[in-house]
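Most newcomers find our protein records easier to grasp once they have seen one. The structure tokens are whole numbers drawn from a learned vocabulary of backbone shapes. The record below serves as our worked example for the rest of this section.
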Amino acid sequence: MDRGVMRRKLAEFLSDAKHIAFFLVSVAALGAVIFFHLSVRNEIIQLAYTLSQENSHGRRLVRERAELELERAIMKNPEEVGKQAEGRFGMHIPDKEQLVRIRKAKGKHK
């Protein structure tokens, strides 16, 4: 179809008030549908981003829990407790001369 013919037909179509109203309502409805589509799409993208962050956080917590369980198992080992006491706090097993025995006083219980 020739452009001139199309323009004339559009001009004839828009000349009638009913057609103008229909055209405007159609354009407004199309705009509303596009706006709704974009807002739903934006919401989906936001939710996907939040879900990704929460999944990363969950994986990080699982790794941290595994590390803490390993540390707990190590700390239950008496040899490891001794190494930590010496290394971190400078503690050591006392010599016999350094031991002081304390006896209970007879009859004085609280």
In short: Residues 3-97 form one domain. The chain has one domain: 3-97.
